[in-house]
Each structure stands twice: as structure tokens, then as C-alpha cells.
């Protein structure tokens, strides 16, 4: 368990021949969100695209439009948390939106509809390094290494945890975690609020980020202008083949059994590709289309047809048994 002492975390610097930037993204394992840019009426804006396990690889829906790309994002239990860049006042606003699948139509919907829930802004002067979330709410890592957690109507310091400014807060298995390349270890927050060392080992050189939403821990390693996936496990992480950004910003998240790569189209849409979990190769991408709720409509039709069949069967039984309808059923 991490005590009150400072946990020193050092992340190796990425090679100067930097890869294109990463698209803001988040995943809770079943739902993934990416924030892609497009030109709005008053300037650039960010579109939050939502993709869900079972939606179909080439499907995503527009969940919300933000006036600017988020500074940080995190997800847990179907809820997305977003921190926007500081306004002129220095305040960093925090918002959330929840997604559910409509029981009748099968369509994914946002709750609340047409807007996002507003939460207390981060303390003035807070510089956000990273963000994660669990059932207790969102966590934010500050530039000074401290962690803040949203509790009710206030952001409070997470007790017993401090990290160097180069530390990286992430999400593993739906829980906040701290990657420590200096000791090649991973500290995870459990349901009791304690931070304990995991058995898995993280890369000690070039660790860029831990992929959110994967069923087993996966990291992205960047070295010499190349990026590759690494499966985290006890012992040496298993590094896969390098993959190419193709000069475009990219997001890689886990969703269901898949690892997915998202690239923006520049018009508020995204192309989605499967990432082979055994080789790390990024497959052919397809432009995401709005999800089809036909499955939900079919399910509703089945229920209606079943009810009609039951009514016909009851009518037939009554005819055979010469039963009269109950008083409430008479016309």
C-alpha cells in the first residue's frame, strides 16, 4: 500500500521526432468516447463520439458538441467525465454525461438529453496532467503530483498519495492506477480506496500511456518516432510490432473484447480500425456511421408478435371451450 510518503514516478521522455498527438479519449471497457475536431460556426469545436461494445465496429454516434477539445477525459460505468481547458478566469469546468441503451428501441441515448451535467470547477490554478474515474467518481492528477477526487460539490485531495510531476494517472480494469516506470510497477486503487502494487510490470523506457478499457493491462510505448503496444504482465512486458500513425492524430482504447484505433476525419467524424491484440497491427479503417437500432426494433416487433400470437391462441381456446369473455373484456 502506498503510505503518506511520496511515490516517485519518472516517465521516460519521448524521442524528439514526435509522433502526431493523441486524440482525447476515454473508455470504461464497454463504452468508448473520442473527441474529434471540426469547424464550427464560431470556430473549431470538438464532437464527442460514443462507441459501444455490440454497436458494430464501424458505428459511432454523436453524443455532444463541445466548444473546445477537452483537456482531459475519463469514463466509468457508462458515465463520461470531461475537464475543459481553463477559461479567462482560470477556472477549469467539469462536466459529465451518461449513456444508456433504450430498452424499447435499442438506441444508445445520452442522459441528460441535449446537455451535460455541470460539476464544480477544479481549484483555480490546477494544471491537469491526467484523469481517471471509478465508481467513486473522477480523479485528476495535478502538475505537482497530487491527486484530486470529486466528492459531492468539491474537489478534495486524495489522501496518502503523492507523485512526481512526471507521474501518469491512468485507468486499468476500470480503476484508477499510477504507472511507475522508475520501479516498473503499477499501483492501483481498490474498492476500499487503498492504493496497492499490482503484479504486472510496466515498461521502464518510453512508456507513453496505458490504454483505457482493455480487459487486461495494455500500454503504448513510444521510442524513436515509433509507437507499439505492450501487454503488461508479471515479468517483462510483451511488446508488439510498431504501428503507424500515418501522420494523423490517433486514439487507441479498449471496448469489449477489442482494441480499437480512432482517427478523426476533420469534419467531426472518425474512422475506426481493429488493432490485432497478438501482433499490434492496425487493420483497415472504416468511416464510422450512426448506429442502427434495427436490433431494438426487431426485438420490439418480436414482443408485439408474441403478444398477438398469445391473444389469438387465447381466442382459439375460448372458441373451443366455448368460454365467454370476462366482464372487463366485453365490448
Report on the architecture of this protein.
Helix content is 8%, strand content 45%. The protein has one helix at 294-321; strands at 25-27, 31-40, 43-52, 61-66, 72-76, 79-83, 92-101, 108-111, 117-122, 128-134, 137-142, 146-151, 154-162, 168-172, 175-180, 185-189, 195-197, 207-210, 218-223, 226-231, 238-243, 251-255, 258-264, 270-275, 286-287.
Q: Which key phrases capture this entry?
A:
331 residues; mainly beta; Neuraminidase; five-stranded antiparallel β-sheet; 25 strands; 8% helix; 45% strand; disordered N terminus; disordered C terminus
Number of individual domains: 2
The radius of gyration computed from the alpha-carbon positions, rounded to a whole number of angstroms, is 24 Å
Provide the structure class: mainly beta
The name CATH uses for the topology of the largest domain is Neuraminidase
Mean pLDDT level: 83
- Name the shape in a single word: globular
Unreliable segments of 5+ consecutive residues: 1-17, 294-331
Work out the helix count.
1
CATH class of the largest domain: Mainly Beta
Instruction: List the helices and strands in order.
Output: EEEEEEEEEEEEEEEEEEEEEEEEEH
Gross CATH architecture of the largest domain = 6 Propeller
Q: Give the helix level as a range of percent.
A: under 10%
Strand content: 35-45%
The profile of the biggest β sheet is: 5 strands, antiparallel
Q: What is the distance, rounded to the nearest whole angstrom, between the alpha carbons of the first and last residues?
A: 72 Å
Query: Care to count the β-strands?
Result: 25
